[in-house]
Write a structure and sequence with these properties.
Protein name: CRAL/TRIO domain-containing protein
Strand order of the largest sheet: 1-2-3-4-5
Structural class: alpha/beta
Helix content: 40-55%
Number of domains: 2
Organism: Meira miltonrushii
Number of strands: 5
CATH architecture of the largest domain: 3-Layer(aba) Sandwich
InterPro entries: CRAL-TRIO_dom, CRAL-TRIO_dom_sf, CRAL/TRIO_N_dom, CRAL/TRIO_N_dom_sf, PI/PC_transfer
C-alpha cells in the first residue's frame, strides 16, 4: 500500500511562526494547548500545585535541566500531559524518572568521551546493519527532525554488535541532548524568525519549541524481522516513554510495507493513546505528505530530500546538522511565561 494509511490526528507543538522555514506561505497553527505559554487557568493552577508538592517532597533539588523557572514548567508540563493532568500519577512518573536517571547516571553519560561520558562506539556499524538514529535539521515549525531509520534492518547482526541496553542508552542520550540543547536552540531560531516577520515581543515570548518531528523509516520491515526484535523494541519504547514523555509532536512513518498494518496493531498497544494519536503512516509515496512539514533542502537525499551533508564523513546521519550548532542559538533568552499566569512559588 502506498500513501497515507491513517489520518494525522492531533499534533502537539509549541511554536507557531508566521511563516514556515523555507516557505513564504503561512502554515496552519499547531495545537499548542497544554504547553508552556498556552496553559489554561486550570492547567496553570495544576502545574503550580504540582511544582509546589514536588518542592515540599524535596524532589526538585536535582536540577534536572532546571536553569530557570521556565525550564521547570516546561519539563513538569510534559509529565502532566503524559498523565492527563493528574498530579498524583504525574508525581509518581516524575519520581520514577529521577530514580532511573540516578541508576543510569545520566549526568555522567552526557559528558564528553574524554571525561568518561557514554560512547556508542558501534554506532557506524549498527547504521550499516540498518539501524540509524540521529537528529538532522528542523521542520517548517522549527522542530528538530529526529530520524529513526530501520530500513532493511538486520536484527541478528545488529545484536551481535551491540546490546539492547546500549541502544537504550544511546537513544536516551540523544533525547537528553535534545532537551538540554536542541529544543532551546530551535526556540531561539523560531523567535528570531518571528521577529523578522513582525511579531510582537508578547507573541515571540509564547513561541517555544519543546518537541520534535520524528521520522520512522520502515522500508523492508517484514513480520519475521519485526517478530525477532519485538520484545526488545517494546522494552525500548517503555523505558523512553516513561522517562522522556511528550517529546514527539508528530511521528511520520514512511515506506510502510503492506504488512505494516499488522505490525502497527502490536506497536499501537504499547503506546499511550496520546502518543499513538500523533502518528501518521505512509507507504512509498510519502514525499508529498512529508514535505508539507519539511523543506526538501533540510531532509537527507537518500530518503528523497536534497541534503547530502557532503562535508561530513558518513553524510547526514552523522552530521548533527541544525541550529544547535550556532552559538547564538544556545544561550538563554527572554523569560517565557503564560502571560502573567506562571510565576515561581
Amino acid at each position: 500500500m502506498a500513501g497515507s494509511r491513517t489520518p494525522s490526528v492531533r499534533e502537539s507543538g509549541a511554536t507557531t511562526p508566521l511563516t514556515g522555514q523555507g516557505s513564504s506561505t503561512p502554515l496552519p497553527p499547531l495545537d499548542k494547548s497544554g504547553h508552556q505559554g498556552n496553559y489554561s487557568e486550570e492547567q496553570t493552577k495544576i502545574l503550580l500545585d504540582f511544582e509546589q508538592q514536588l518542592k515540599q517532597e524535596d524532589c526538585l533539588k536535582d536540577d534536572y535541566l532546571f536553569e530557570t523557572p521556565d525550564q521547570i514548567h516546561i519539563v513538569l508540563g510534559r509529565y502532566l500531559r503524559a498523565r492527563n493532568w493528574n498530579i498524583e500519577n504525574a508525581k509518581k512518573m516524575y519520581k520514577d524518572t529521577l530514580n532511573w536517571r540516578k541508576e543510569v547516571n545520566i549526568d555522567q553519560m552526557v559528558k564528553p568521551k574524554e571525561e568518561g561520558g557514554y560512547d556508542f562506539e558501534e554506532r557506524e556499524k549498527i547504521g550499516e546493519l540498518g539501524w540509524k538514529m540521529y537528529f538532522h535539521s528542523t521542520d517548517k515549525y522549527h522542530r528538530p527532525i529526529f530520524v529513526q531509520d530501520l530500513s532493511y534492518l538486520q536484527v541478528h547482526e545488529v545484536f551481535q554488535n551491540t546490546t539492547p541496553d546500549r541502544i537504550v542508552k544511546f537513544f536516551a542520550l540523544s533525547l537528553e541532548d535534545a532537551v538540554r540543547n536542541k529544543y532551546r536552540a530551535c526556540t531561539q531560531l523560531a523567535r528570531e524568525e518571528a521577529r523578522k516577520q513582525g511579531a510582537t515581543e508578547e507573541e515571540v515570548s509564547r513561541i517555544i519549541v519543546d518537541d520534535n518531528f520524528m521520522i520512522l523509516n520502515v522500508a523492508g520491515l517484514g513480520m519475521s524481522t519485526f517478530w525477532s526484535f519485538k520484545n526488545k523494541l517494546q522494552e525500548l519504547l517503555a523505558i523512553l516513554d516513561a522517562n522522556y514523555p511528550e517529546l514527539s509532536g508528530r511521528v511520520q512513518i514512511i515506506n510502510a510495507p503492506w504488512l505494516f498494518t499488522t505490525i502497527w496493531s502490536y506497536i499501537k498497544g504499547w503506546l499511550p493513546p496520546a502518543t499513538a494519536a500523533k502518528i501518521d503512516i505512509a507507504g512509498t509515496d510519502y514525499h508529498s505528505i512529508l514535505f508539507k512539514y519539511i523543506d526538501p533542502n533540510e531532509f537527507p537525499e537518500y530518503m528523497g530530500g536534497k541534503c547530502k551533508c557532503e562535508g561530513c564523513t558518513g553524510g547526514c546521519p552523522f552530521s548533527n546538522r541544525g541550529p544547535w550548532n550556532d552559538k547564538k542559538n544556545t544561550t538563554s533568552e527572554t523569560k517565557v511565561t503564560n502571560g502573567e499566569a506562571i510565576q515561581s512559588t
